Amino acid sequence: MEVEKVSAVVEESAPAEAVEKKDVTCEVKGEEYAYLDATGFTSELFKIELRGLPKYYGIGELKKLLNVKMKLSTNKIKIMKPGSPFIFICFRNQEDREAAIKALDGYKWKGKELSAFEAKPAPDPLVRRRKEASAAEGEPMNIKRRTVEASATSLAYLPYEQQLKQKQSEMENILQKFGKELWTSIPTLRVFVEKQRQEHGGLPCAFEPIRPSPMQDGYRNKCEFSIGKDAQGIKRVGFRVGSYSNGFLEVESIAHLKHIPNCMKQAVVLFEEFVQNSPYEVYSAETYQGYFRQMTVRMSHATGQVMVIVGVHLQSLSPDEQQKMKTAIVECLTSEAGKKAGICSIHFEVIQKRQQGQYTNPIEHLYGDTHIEDTILGLTFRISPGAFFQINTPAAELLYQCAIDVAAPDKNTSLLDICCGTGTIGLCFARHCKQVLGVDIVDQAIKDAEYNAKRNGVENCKFFAGNSDDLITSLIRQANIIPEQQESLIAIVDPPRAGLHIRSITQLRNARGLDKLVYVSCSPQSAIKNWIDLMRPCSKQLRGDPFVAKKAIAVDLFPHTPHTELVILFERETETISESVAENAAVNDECENQNDTPMPEDV
Q1: Distances (CA, A) of 295 to 19, 175, 203, 273, 291
Q2: CATH topology (fold) of 222-353+360-376
Q3: Higher model confidence: residue 68 or residue 35?
Q4: Which of 20, 154, 344, 443 could form a disulfide with 94 if both were Cys (CB 3.0 to 4.6 A apart)?
Q5: Is 591 assigned a catalytic role?
């Protein structure tokens, strides 16, 4: 699941904004800024730069500061990278921008004095790269055009055993980095870290061999295909071979990609032919004109069902024209070729500028089943168009079984399923537990989780819609653990790529009775900070005893790509940490007497 960004919220331009827009565009001229006039309202016109940010801050904290405490009307926050000392903030009009600069410039936050000032609109990266290409008489400078195979399946050229060796090595490197950062950022744990390294071959915890995917080819159960034109100008349904910022818009065929199943390829070929013969143009990210933008295909390995969601920019189509388009799409996808591909569910997604608080585009069911179903560990799961579901179902069974094995729950165990999605992990745990309490921020995911529990006759699961940052404490109270009756509490977290917010980490650390935590990460590099926070010594914020990383297991959910899932078991070991702190203090005292500082060779 990426670095968290605030969704852009774009409103129609008001007359007053149009006047201000004219003033701003006078200052920035040239092709790179033509989009300011061509796209209607854009918040790039009313942007500020905010500098002097503290070393550690979360996007959630920043949003709360700007929108809640300071009551600023932000439109979009542009993060350069996690922990960046500066960011850009966009507003809807000049008045809001000026108010923000006045409030933020000189404001002190977390011991740092902020500085805020106007920022010019960003130049169009596509136009900029094309100018570079023109000047260099070829490709944009420093940018190499990649094939669709290299973009989507960069490890496909390697035998699968070699892919696994490479991924095992990469996960070892990440765990080594975790150990180094532990050693550097938590001096009181240095003795403990060194002991762990000696015991586990230089790693901060035990690391088992990577679990291979049972299916290496055609394993993906969901793909989002772009609709555009290839280098020859032919309309295509496939994958982009580069990014807009790098100057590439081309969409190339996915016919030879190993990880896409044949039923998806058949659906793509069918719809590509439809798009090529349609009177409606494909959408252009450069001109903001056109209609067909993307095609999402979901399939079930268990049932063979195929769901298609067609994403369209309606532009100024009349209701009658929209209906004709929808009818034509259904006729295409329900043809004999569509039936052969297994298409049984068709949806229509309206791609539009999202309003504040809107996280998804409107989706309309056009034909057939409203959902499809797949199975994991003997349980059947309903999958809605926008639901999160692990993209490699056979390997997901391995992943969830690994999580169950390392957690080792029993009939006296209550499980907290944080970021539960449609309930897949929690429901797989349910037969091994007393009860499961799940939370997720997406309402539809919770509805799917409740349906899935009922569909499988699971009665010891409850799911709650809301932000896990706010609900973990309530879930722990509801679990009502009674240690005297040998009851235990385990948490399993499977967060987005950016990891858990510090508020969630704090609540998990401070939870009494929670002695075991399983962290499932789809982006282990991004999760290191979470792991370190789980192991930090007690403080005013982290009052509960620290956890200790005990065991890690990598599971290959993404053959032919560099991505890997990592499962880490954390347990509370108060005595182990206390002994380490005491030993570390003794070593430091001895070193001070000798005017020496201990330093491991590899730090």
Answers
A1: 38, 37, 43, 13, 12
A2: OB fold (Dihydrolipoamide Acetyltransferase, E2P) (2.40.50)
A3: 68
A4: 20
A5: no
